[in-house]
Amino acid sequence: MIMGLNQRRRWVLDVKLVVMLGLGLLLAMAQHTVQLRSNHPMHGIVDRVNEIGGPYIGLVMAYPPEESALITSRLFVHNSRIPFIDLAGRRFNVGKIKNVDVIYVMTGEQTVNAGITVQILLDAFDIRGVVHYGTAGSSNNSLSFGDVSVMKNVAFTGSWKWKAFKSETGQLPELDFGAFNFPVRGKNLLAKVEFTPSQLYSAGKPMEELFWLPVDSEWFDIATQLQDLELRRCLNDTYCLPETPKVIVGLRGSTADIFLDNAAYREFLFKQFNVSTVDEESAAIVMACLSNAVPSIVFRGVSDLGGGSDRLLSISRISLASVNALRVAAEFIALIDKNNLVHDQ
C-alpha cells in the first residue's frame, strides 16, 4: 500500500511537470507567433535600440542644409553598436548630443512627410519628446536674418474653405482676394477663403478642433532660459550679418504646403494672425506629438523674409539660419536633460 501511494505521488508530480513544461512550450510558441506577426525585418534591431539607450529625444529636421548643420557641427555622436536604422525610406540615426540619448531623422519637406516621419519615430522608438529645428521665412519685420524663433503656438494655415462670390462673412479669419488686387483694389471672382481649424485626434479623448496648436508648456518654460544665448553672426570669413542674431520666445508660427514669396500675403498673415514665421512642417510635427501625448518644441531660424523687401534667397543665409536654430535646439536638449528628474540610461 505504501509503495503504491508513493508511486501515485511520483506519477502526479510527473504529470504536473509535464503540464508545466507543456504550458511553458505553449507560451514560448505563443511568444514566437507574436514575433512572427511582427515580421518587419528591422523589428529585432528596433527592440535592441530601445534596450541599449533611451528614452530618447527625437530630433527632427526637414531640409538638407538643416541636417548639414548638424553633421558639420559634430555635436551628434553615432552609437557605436547601432548607428542608424532605415525605416520606410527614412534613416533614423541613433546616438547622443551633449551626452543625451538622441535619435535624429530627416522628415523631408512639407506636412505629409513631416507627420508620417514623426509618427514612425514615435511608434518604433522609446521617445520622451520631440525637438524640431529648421529654417523659416519671416512675416514679422522685427525679425532679422539669423534670428531664432521659439514658437509657443503654430497654426496650419493651408486649409481653406473657398467661398462663393459675395458670400457672407464666416466664423474664422478670411482672406478677401479683392483686397489685394493690384494696382487697384476691388472685387474679383476669386472671392475669398475662410481658414479652417485642424482636427486633433488623441487617445482617450474626443476629436477636438483647434486652430492654434501649442508646444509643450513645460518645455516652453525651460526654453525661455535660452533668450540670452549667443548666436552666430558670421557663417565664415566672407559672410557676416550686419547685426548679431537673437533668440525670441513666445511667437506664433504658420505652416502650409506653400513656399511664401509674396509680400501681400506675408502682410496678411502677420496682421490677421500675428504670426512671425512661415514654414512647411512645424504644425504637422506638433500635431503628431499632441496626438500621441508626447512633448514637442520648435526652433526656427529666419533665412528669408517671405516675400518682403529682400526676396533674394541666399545659401549663406539658409546655412546660418540652420546653424543658429541647431545651436538653440542643442542647448535646449542639454537643458531638458538637466531638468528631467528621471532619466534611464
Automatic annotation (TrEMBL):
This is PNP UDP 1 domain-containing protein.
